Amino acid sequence: MSLLLVAWLLFKVLAILLLARIAWMDFSTQRITNRDVLLLLCLGLGSLQFHSLQTGSWLDMGISAIGALILFAALFPFWLLRKVGAGDVKLMSVVPFLIGGSDLVVFSLLLLVFAIATATVVKNPFLLPAGMFRHYVQHLDRKGVVPFGVPISAAAICAIALQMYYALRIATSSGILEHLN
Fold it and tell me: Are 157 and 91 in contact, with CB atoms under 8 Å apart?
């Protein structure tokens, strides 16, 4: 395994840990801090840099930047209307840098699944096991708050895990080109 791949994997693992923290903080306090979003942005830019050096192409970084701008522009009016929180808008704007432009479709599909699951759980807390968790989700429903950072983080974690799996599978495979040479 090359040193660039190891560094890329390290940045991805750190991003997964930070996304898990963001999901928990958003679920428990309905807050996503600017510090966490900036750390994610730095991890995303760093991992994109390593990926670009590995592949020799900067196209993924450009697609990620365009995706981030489009997401910010699309979600900003919803923040103005108080439909989503500012932290959710910032988190969604940073995710393309974490995922990369080539896997944004996978992230979008995962986000759809996790958002539907989150909305279903918040609107129907009786689906959950009894106890404190159910009581907390009922409290969220009464307040009219859906912690959207949770499905965003879950979808990003799954997309990053898939990227890591494929990268490790390719790095550890024997490769047909090596057999031909």
Answer: no
